[in-house]
Specification:
The protein is an all-alpha fold and 162 residues long. The chain is 57% helix and 0% strand.
């Protein structure tokens, strides 16, 4: 006889949730230091140097985004430094935290099996919408483009380069 989702006990289900969180952490933290900082990441780090007032002023003058991310990154870099792993890990932590948040939201809308499936899909997703710096670590090579790194042979506007 095949056991269905309904027959899985509470303890086994919690173990599955922990496995989903471990997968989320692996897909987001694997390869954080494989590449040096890209322009947008280096810009974010440069904004965090100086006082909090300078940060707010700089973002107000030169950026269209609100300063919350930069303020969080400033505190994060004060604690962990401004290397590749330290800078990228803030976004990776938020990416991992999205998984239980999605589970909780889906659990309110549907049963626990649907919520677990949604969380598992998000946890295993290493796509560009989750990965804050393009396609790595599953990067197949220079053809994998992102807004901050265009596809080889094309400019950011998609025009052929010679």
């Amino acid at each position: 006889m095949v056991r269905g989702w309904a027959e899985i006990g509470e303890r086994s289900f919690r173990i599955l949730l922990i496995v989903v969180l471990a997968i989320a952490a692996e897909t987001r933290f694997l390869g954080l230091a494989d590449r040096s900082l890209w322009f947008d990441e280096a810009y974010s780090v440069s904004v965090t140097h100086g006082s909090f007032l300078q940060l707010v002023w700089s973002v107000r003058l030169f950026d269209t985004h609100p300063p919350l991310y930069y303020a969080l990154l400033k505190g994060w870099t004060l604690l962990f430094g401004s290397g590749e792993i330290a800078v990228r890990s803030l976004s990776a932590v938020f990416g991992v935290l999205m998984v239980p948040l999605l589970y909780g939201f889906a659990r309110r809308m549907a049963d626990r099996e649907v919520a677990l499936a949604a969380a598992a899909l998000l946890a295993g997703s290493a796509s560009g919408c989750i990965r804050f710096s393009g396609c790595w670590p599953l990067d197949p090579g220079p053809r994998c483009g992102s807004p901050s790194r265009p596809i080889e042979g094309r400019s950011k506007r998609g025009v052929e380069q010679r």
